[in-house]
């Protein structure tokens, strides 16, 4: 039995003060309306209406039940309208997950998005792994990968990242500037602990692939801490290009071997389903597709500026 539908019929019968009037309003037969009300009475195990040939009246139980029935139907109508509106008007909590390093870029974008859609409240989670959105309840996951495996998730490509070798001017004055990738084997190379990448630094050119294995020196899993170690002259580090922008612009680091870009990876926005897509998810992903490449281009311009090269 469709209880909600039966409640609506019961309310209409009371409002029309007759089964016939309710039947006309609902485009049903009088017999169908009578049966639906009888089914509802059977469901609640109470008589709701007194029926005579002249009039229709509520029982005491029916009066109490009518009040609650109206509340239930109104609440359901409001909830339905709100849910349908979610596909039109961005509002509510948006749970976003990203890899740690990208959080530096996402925060100002979130601020700009929030100006456009003030009814959306962000919950940003940062970690070193790509979670399963369905298991952990994220609305959108910003994922970094060379390519995506087959998945039930919808994936939108929103940009590409890479890493660059950097070192402090004081270190390079002391140890010299490497001119070829294999020359890094004679340098103190700081190792970024990242589950997405192997321990080796892989350089590729027309002559093939050149692998450098940093020694077991300073190791860290947070890019910002690696920047500090590099600025302190501890050695040459491999930094995500968006993390290297600030120290290169400030002159505290210089880009080494500028002809090479390493660890190129795609950035994807993942979300569970395209069907009945929530407006806050749709607008956030569209915003990222539009604005993140522009932000990457600004950082890439710094990487390409010879003034920041060793």
From TrEMBL:
CDD domains, alphabetized: PBP2_CrgA_like
Protein name per the record: LysR family transcriptional regulator
Keyword Zinc in annotation: no
GO molecular function: DNA-binding transcription factor activity; sequence-specific DNA binding
SUPFAM superfamilies: Periplasmic binding protein-like II (SSF53850), Winged helix' DNA-binding domain (SSF46785)
Entry similarity comment: Belongs to the LysR transcriptional regulatory family.
HTH lysR-type domain location: 1-59
GO biological process per UniProt: DNA-templated transcription
Keywords from the UniProt entry: DNA-binding, Transcription, Transcription regulation
Domain of life: Bacteria
């Amino acid at each position: 039995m469709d209880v909600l539908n039966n409640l609506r019929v019961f309310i209409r019968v009371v409002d029309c003060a007759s089964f016939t009037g309710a039947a006309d309003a609902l485009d049903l037969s009088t017999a169908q309306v009578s049966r639906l009300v009888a089914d509802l009475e059977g469901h609640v195990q109470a008589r709701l209406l007194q029926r005579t040939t002249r009039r229709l009246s509520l029982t005491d139980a029916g009066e109490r039940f009518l009040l609650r029935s109206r509340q239930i139907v109104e609440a359901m109508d409001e909830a339905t309208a709100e849910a349908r509106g979610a596909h039109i008007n961005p509002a509510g909590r948006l749970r976003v997950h990203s890899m740690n390093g990208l959080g530096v870029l996402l925060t100002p974008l979130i601020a700009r998005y929030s100006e456009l859609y003030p009814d959306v409240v962000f919950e940003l989670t940062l970690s070193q792994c790509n979670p399963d959105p369905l298991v952990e309840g994220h609305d959108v996951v910003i994922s970094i990968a060379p390519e995506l495996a087959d998945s039930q998730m919808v994936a939108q490509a929103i940009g590409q990242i890479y890493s660059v070798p950097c070192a402090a001017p004081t270190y390079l004055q002391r140890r010299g500037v490497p001119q070829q990738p294999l020359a890094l084997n004679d340098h103190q190379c700081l190792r970024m602990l990242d589950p997405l990448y192997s321990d080796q630094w892989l350089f590729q050119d027309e002559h093939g692939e050149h692998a450098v294995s940093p020694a077991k020196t300073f190791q860290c899993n947070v890019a910002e801490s690696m920047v500090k170690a590099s600025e302190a002259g501890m050695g040459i580090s491999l930094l995500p290009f968006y993390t290297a922008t600030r120290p290169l612009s400030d002159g505290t680091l210089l880009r080494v071997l500028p002809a090479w870009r390493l660890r190129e990876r795609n950035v994807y926005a993942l979300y569970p389903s395209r069907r009945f897509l929530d407006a806050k998810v749709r607008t956030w992903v569209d915003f990222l597709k539009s604005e993140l490449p522009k932000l990457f281009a600004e950082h890439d311009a710094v990487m390409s500026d010879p003034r920041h090269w060793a």
